[in-house]
Amino acid sequence: MSSEQQPSSAGSAAPRQEMLGAENYVQLVDIRKEYDGFVAVDEVNLAIRKGEIFALLGASGCGKSTLLRVLAGFEQPTRGEVKVDGQRMNGQPPYRRPINMMFQSYALFPHMSVEQNVAFGLKQDGMPAAQIKQKVDEMLGLVQMGAYAKRRPHQLSGGQQQRVALARSLAKGPKLLLLDEPMGALDKKLRSQMQLELVNIIERLGVTCAMVTHDQEEAMTMAHRIAIMDAGKIRQVGTPDEIYEQPNSRFTAGFIGQVNLFEGKIEDDEKDYISIRSPDLPAPLYVGHGVTGYEGMEVALAVRPEKILISKDEPEQPHNKAQGVIEEIAYLGSHSVYHVRLPSGKRVLANMTNVRRWASESFTWNDQAWLSWGDQSGVVLTS
Amino acid sequence: MSKGNSKLSLTLLAIGFVFLYAPILSLIIYSFNESRLVTVWAGFSLKWYGELFADSQIMSAAWVSIQIAFMTASLAVVLGTMAGLVMTRMRRFPGKTLFGGLITAPLVMPEVIIGLSILLLFVSLGDVIGIGSRRGMTTILIAHVTFCMAYVTVVVSSRLSEMDRSLEEAAMDLGANRVKVFFVITLPIIAPALISGWLLAFTLSLDDLVIASFVSGPSSTTLPMKVFSSVRLGVSPKINALATLMILVVSIGAVVAWWLMSRDEKRRQRDMQMALQKGD
Ligand SMILES: Nc1ncnc2c1ncn2[C@@H]1O[C@H](COP(=O)(O)OP(=O)(O)OP(=O)(O)O)[C@@H](O)[C@H]1O
Ligand SMILES: [Mg+2]
Q: Which residues are within 8 A (CB) of A165 and not within 5 positions of it... i.e. 6 or more apart?
């Protein structure tokens, strides 16, 4: 593996966007799925690019697995269309789709060896035995499980089982790889290691991948793009930093990471700025970019804790500031989180990086402190 | 628990065992009795075993029973597995609950009623299309399959419903169609349940007296029917010998099954240990 591949898989994958291929490689058009009248998934429109790792992120029961199963062909959508590489998939049974899935429970066949498990899909295609052998060796090498070829699944540890499951779902060279909670059964330490390795393998093979997770850190680490799901609907689609920095609603802002929401009304709406009057804050809120709104419109300003500066002296700017009392300090090593109570009763979170040793000691409980943030730091939310 | 208390419970346990096994034990002992009188011990002998094998009526009844039990068990496993699949793998359809109830009803139905109703069915079928009018091995077989199938269905569908569905889905995902998935994945995994279902049906059929009596014909006397009728004419030690042999066969079967299962379990545990030690 070349050295320049390392950082992309280790950090945010966003810079690699331009390397991706065809725009609408996998397409979901207006998908709706009902179970006996209960709507599990509704109005889902998604396009996944070739070679992309796409994550469906949402709370338990929001319909992520259902959507994945619609893609795999285990469930037929009540309405809508599934297309892969231009081919319509509706009505096709799972065994005729160029899609393979890695199951949450791994679903390794207990009565077959590791080797036979990986060979299973190839055998179904009627591949000659010699070629199967070669392919199986190649796949097991890829996941570093070559030494375990003759073992049975129950003779493997959880992490090893996952590698075999991955090798099996990649063996047929699917156009789309589905991962259902890929790290769900692993302990925390193994999890972060496997996340990187999985991304590495998937990117090396250039396979398009849709994964389901309820762990936002996992989605941020592994995926090129993320779809936030809630109650069967897609709330936002974007790269990890888009989702984090430009949430499109109060829901996504609150779902990913921590956020301070200031509710208020637009007081002044100009071309290149707006100001918002919030009952939570004494000073007006000033946002250095326009929004499509009108004066008097109810909006919320979302400001992430790490965008808020905390200081002893009053900042010079006339807006985007407030004074309060430090109620709580959570020391997290690399940074500390300050819980500041404003006179209005509003509680605001502010992060401060612990640049110097004992830096966090400059503030303590019940200190008065000033909070402030820049014109571009907040996002105006209208929904 | 106090000492006196544990003594009491031990005594109760002993009484229970005696109550259960004393009759069987005396039956086995008297099968080796020299005397024709069942109640008087006159020394060890194997002569009743000799007489048993020389009795062509008992031997042919045994042969009939074994044939019927073998075919019943095999058919019941096939049909019971199919019913189990319908119960656990098919999506809901109108009448599914009713179907499940009907299939397992023979478990609680008195045998007399099953026997009688099947007899009536055969009689009326005989009037209409002429089959079933000649009662014999076939009619016993049909009757046995209907009630043994209920037991097999229960055993198999409980195994099917506890089996991880994603195994079948994974196989289908990898390109195997439904039929292939059943034979290559489902069947090998539920095989132990099929074997125990088969053994259960075999013993149930071998053991049945009531239902067979209703639907048998003149040419088809099963072993339990033969035993029952000969005992009514007076107990012969021959029957003791027969019963002893049957107990022997059943015990060997049970021990072998237990041994196979425990060996499997031990190996699994050892493998698991190994994996944990070598694990990454
Ligand atoms: N076969 C089914 N029949 C009826 N309802 C179902 C079925 N499968 C899923 N549902 C319902 O659809 C909704 C979405 O389920 P789904 O499994 O897609 O959730 P999920 O987002 O994957 O949740 P989790 O993170 O817990 O796995 C749930 O409310 C669930 O109860
Ligand atoms: Mg799920």
A: A102, A103, A106, A107, A108
